[in-house]
Input
Amino acid sequence: MLTQSNSASSSVGRKVASLPCAANDQFGILTGHAGLVATEFTYRKDEEIYGEDEQAEYVYQVIRGAVRTYKLLSDGRRQIGAFHLPGDVFGLESGATHRLAAEAILDTTLRLVKRKSLELSAQSDVRVARDLWSITSGELQHAENHMLLLGRKTAMERVATFLLEMDRRIAKTGMIALPMCRRDIGDYLGLTLETVSRALSELQQQGVLGLSGARQIVLRNRERLADLEA
Amino acid sequence: MLTQSNSASSSVGRKVASLPCAANDQFGILTGHAGLVATEFTYRKDEEIYGEDEQAEYVYQVIRGAVRTYKLLSDGRRQIGAFHLPGDVFGLESGATHRLAAEAILDTTLRLVKRKSLELSAQSDVRVARDLWSITSGELQHAENHMLLLGRKTAMERVATFLLEMDRRIAKTGMIALPMCRRDIGDYLGLTLETVSRALSELQQQGVLGLSGARQIVLRNRERLADLEA
DNA sequence: CGCCACCTCCGGTAAACTACGTAGGGGCAA
DNA sequence: TTGCCCCTACGTAGTTTACCGGAGGTGGCG
Output
């Protein structure tokens, strides 16, 4: 059962053009335009948000929680393309369908906007069109970096890169609170969960990081980690 | 020494909106808009077109030849992100800089358009803005598929996928004429050139393909190849 | 003609990772 | 509390692939 609540474009007066306001710059795009109706929706842990090749009816923004987008091979092998954290927009497609599936990693609240209404808005407001392009371009940049990681980096380099990415994106008071399990990390980095676990243990033994619980990480030596990133 | 020639927006009368005319649909975007000045430029084999993190002054379209875009690690490991063939647009950035380097694979003629003039055109014509987004979105889709390949497919599956991609993109009269060497293929697929070579030999032995010269490939059993793709 | 780049084929070695197992501790939810 | 999932930590075996060197063939080119 899903909790649903309307919040029809609550903060209307917001400016759009390049606001480096809060933590996340993509925040204004789905809220800042009058005439756009946004709906909030809550998904439970491991619940599917949309499937691969499904019609792309909505564009999503994470309010609370975390989302993984992924592709599957016929025998179940999985590649996670990205993790989406509060503030991130995902599910935005230029074509008709979603090309990755999306699931909530934990209980997650999303803001939904009709894809059609966004496209319509983009036809009359070039700034919206520019924002849509920028979001897709940002995803492409991430994917390009990730191809380098998947194609050419060693297991330890991948884990170091992952830690620095998470540190940049979700570090609060020096602490990384991971929303995802080791299997998710492995499927993101093209490794097995065991390899991820081993790499983290070794980094802890070297004093590069501290673990307080499996999903609470403190980076103690970012320079060393940047070296390991290759 | 570079051959240069002006062809200032030669085919002006061309329509833009969704032309499924020739082999390649991206063809109209850099030529179809009056007011855009296009310059043709020829690069020699292995010549750099632009470097990683270089200012993105131009957007490019392949007229003849082929281009590889890639990222390097500090120790020389290379990941090729994409091959660009006649008709393809590349080097299009939403941000200020190129995030992969680009080189000509063989003697290659490109059409260049000033990035600024395209952006300007996009501000007055929403169709142009839409086209720019579509190009970037297409690149993202390719990158997403490639992440699955790099993260989760076996060597043979990668080679099979590569062959089917090339078959789709450059097959003339049932023949694939590869512009790139085995090392390029390896760096594209996250493999060594030896592994690529072995996989192709095995496919030849199985009768799945025929080699007439290393870069002339005939696919004899696409169904088998599609199975191998996983 | 030789030179050179590219490619294939042949080894052997080593690393990386997978694929099983088993076991135990901890957190969390019913 | 109990059960379940997640995580760590062993172990062993096996596969895949990388990496190294070298030999030989081929085709293009000067």
Notes: The first strand of chain A starts at residue 4 and ends at 6. Chain A touches chain B through 41 residues (CB under 8 Å).
